[in-house]
Amino acid sequence: RKRIHAPEHEDIDEAIHHWFVAAREKNIPVSGDLLKSKAEQFTRCLDIENFKGSNGWIERFKNRHEMRFKTIVEETASVDYGYLSHSGMKLQHKRDLYNVDETGLFHQLLPRKTLASSDNCAGTKAKQQITLLIGANMDGSDCMLPLFIGKFGKPRCFKNVNTLPLTYQCNTKAWMTAEIWKEWARTFDEKMYCQQRKVVLFVDNCPAHPKVTGLKAVTVHFLPPNSTSVLQPMAQGVIQCFKSCYWKLLLRKIVDCIDTNMSFQVDILQAMHLVRKAWEQVTDKCITNCFKHAGWIQGSPDVVIEMPVVHITEECNTLGISESLIDKITEEESHVSTTEGMDDGDIIASIMAKKPQDNESCDDDDDVDCEPMVPSLHEVLKAVDTERSYAQTLQDTKDLFGLINKLENTCRANCAH
């Protein structure tokens, strides 16, 4: 096997690959001469000197990305989706059938009834959208942690943070891209391979979901076009249930801040914690019912959205806002773009955003967050003691004491290093 060398100009290589994937998804034939011409355009945009788009460069580029121009030129627009093949479904256990889907979330779009006479939404939606990739298997035994896609490579709130609650990716529009998808798919494949499992993953067919080569444990099937809203379990209630949980947690946090006279703003890190907590509240029964509703399981589905509306109603009443406002925000989120392809300007911007910056510089000037303060060991231990004091006032919480002790031991050990 020939050794694959890293490109001399990584920015050009990345830009051309982004462009190539987008062209291929549109079934546009791509030749070596066309790649050379496009590389020269990107060279000028990225202000790179001494780049030579030679035949040797074309061959190395093809080898790095496992390309064959013959395949590209002769490829037709038809795709064998292989959707829900009954024989294939019967060969798979419910735990080995997965579905994932993207959804937009306006993580900072807060109602401000207390500041105005009518329901309004504070903030600019374009600056606040993030995209989540949400998925699970058919029996709900594996609710994969959402992939969180934001706009900025170095959010200010990430300073001094070494462990994030979710995997974080970024690009200039907070969209799922082909590169992010391939990285996620390979990570998921490696996880299944380590568990010695063979699974089938169903996703919608779009440019942001290219075919991923070399998967060992995951077989990807694309859903038929123009039918994903009906046939995709995540879109049949799972995402709606998750968002109900998210809004419940968000509104409750606002109420808590009002009660304690504290200001409340949602930065990326806080949103990640809320997303994870909300996702953990989605039950396996809800997920199974949504697979039923999409026609994956025989039998009539039970009630899909299990969380009673009254839970959100209570918080809305406390804040003096209407539930219709929450419904309106959720409806808008369902229509935002989450997977559109990038044009040349987007490709250049995404590459420039990854370039090293000064350690004190952060690229989220429009975010509302501040640099998080690192609490001292004394402050942490005081908080742990408060948790322990509260736990002992509850009933049947013996297991909770073990978790609190583990937290204290971890804090002391980290401080000692």
Automatic annotation (TrEMBL):
Keywords: DNA-binding
Domain of life: Eukaryota
The keyword DNA-binding is annotated on this UniProt entry: yes
MF GO annotations: DNA binding
Domain HTH CENPB-type: 1-71
Xref: SMART domains: CENPB
Name of one Pfam family that matches: HTH_Tnp_Tc5
GO terms under cellular component: nucleus
Listed name of the protein: HTH CENPB-type domain-containing protein
Protein's organism: Latimeria chalumnae
Classification of source organism: Eukaryota, Metazoa, Chordata, Craniata, Vertebrata
